[in-house]
Amino acid sequence: MPTEFAIHALNYKTLAAVLLIGVVPLLLVGMAVYFLGKDRMSRLAALGATSLAVIIGLLGVWQLSAIRLTADATTLTVGGGAYSVSVPMAQIDHAGARRRLPGSDDTALGLRTHGIGMPGLSLGWFRTGKGKAFAAVTDPAKVVILPTTAGYTLLVSPEDPDAFLAALRHR
User: Which pTM was predicted?
Assistant: First the structure.
C-alpha cells in the first residue's frame, strides 16, 4: 500500500509567482492591445494573449498540484507533472538519510539543469556541492537529504520531515 507524504507545492508563494510571472503580464498586454487597437486584428491578438494567460495559469496550477512524495515497499516517487523520478528503495542509502542542518551548504541547490525554480518551489534536476540532485523543495527548513547509489541525491521537503524519515526507515 503506497504512502503519500505532503509536499505543499501549491502555496501562496508559488501561486503568486505563476500569476506575476506568467499570467498578469499577458493579461496586461491583452488589455492594452484590446483598448488601444480598434481593428479586428487587435481584437484577435487580445483574445490570443488572454487565452495564453489562462492556459499558462491552468498549466501552472496543474504542475503545482501534481507534485507528490509517494513511497511503497519497492519504490520512492518524487515530483509530478513534467518533473518526477522514481527510485527503487534498494538504491536509497537509508543510513545516510537525514534532515539538512540549517546553514549547511554541501547540498544547497546550485545551477538548475532541468526543472522549475520559483519562489516557494525548486523542482527537478540541480547541481549541488556534492554532484547532482533531484529536488522537490518547497521549504528550505524542512529539507530531507536522501543519498542514492544511482549517482544522485534526492532533496525533498515533506510537511513532516521526521515522520517521513521514520516511515522510510521502516520500509
Answer: 0.85
